[in-house]
Write a structure and sequence with these properties.
The protein is of the alpha+beta class and about 190 residues long. It has two helices and twelve strands; from the N terminus they run αβαβββββββββββ. It has helices at about 10-30, 55-60; strands at about 40-45, 60-65, 70-75, 80-85, 90-95, 100-105, 110-115, 120-125, 130-135, 140-145, 170-175, 180-185. The chain has a seven-stranded mixed β-sheet, with helices on one face. A three-stranded antiparallel β-sheet has the order 3-4-5, covered by helices on one side. Strands 8-9 form a two-stranded antiparallel sheet. A hairpin with a 3-residue loop joins strand 3 (about 70-75) and strand 4. The longest helix is centred in the first third of the chain and has 23 residues, at about 10-30. It is globular, with a radius of gyration of 18 Å. The termini are close together.
């Protein structure tokens, strides 16, 4: 089989990331149109990602944010986006390169993109370790939902919550999305 010297798989991923860049750029200028809102899943340890230590400890692998009701200062460049969100009533500033995004989902129109993101892993038994690049292993995404009032709890609290009392976490785990249109680039990849 001939070798793909052009790397169509990489070009296709870059083009699809351009869709996210364009959509977020429009939202930064004009706000969310209609019922559109987005779930953005990204690797928290990917190069260029900037989140607080608190969030990184809570989401060491990946995290999903929801851009819907309460976010501010959305800024989009050619390589990344920045956004302000509140987690448990604590304002946070997140910087996410488009290259760190694993998934983008707009449930209002059932549109979803998934990406293979390569991460650096340290392997080996020596003190120096060996760095290798490998596709990230998929895991069930944890969704970090921004604080919004009023907001019904997404899952039951571990202890009864009284009116006016804060829940310990606004993070929820998502299940499977039903009947989503998924664009996967695996079918375009060269098999070894």
């Amino acid at each position: 089989m001939p070798q793909d010297m052009i790397r169509y798989d990489i070009l296709a991923q870059e083009a699809l990331r351009g869709v996210i860049r364009k959509v977020l750029g429009e939202v930064a200028k004009a706000g969310l149109p209609g019922n559109h809102h987005f779930f953005v899943t990204f690797l928290t340890g990917a190069p260029g990602v900037r989140i607080s230590t608190r969030l990184h400890e809570k989401y060491p692998e990946q995290m999903t944010i929801v851009l819907q009701h309460q976010f501010w200062d959305l800024q989009v460049t050619d390589t990344l986006f920045e956004v302000g969100l509140s987690f448990g009533d604590v304002p946070e500033r997140l910087v996410v390169p488009f290259s760190a995004i694993r998934g983008f989902y707009d449930p209002s129109v059932n549109f979803e993109l998934e990406f293979d993101v390569e991460v650096e892993e340290t392997v080996g038994d020596n003190d120096q370790g060996v760095t290798s690049i490998a596709p990230a292993e998929p895991e069930k995404p944890k969704v970090a939902t921004p604080s919004a009032k009023p907001k019904p709890p997404v899952k039951p609290a571990k202890k009864p919550v009284k009116a006016g009392e804060k829940l310990e976490s606004d993070a929820v785990e998502t299940g499977e999305k039903s009947s989503a249109s998924v664009v996967s680039l695996d079918s375009f990849r060269k098999k070894k």
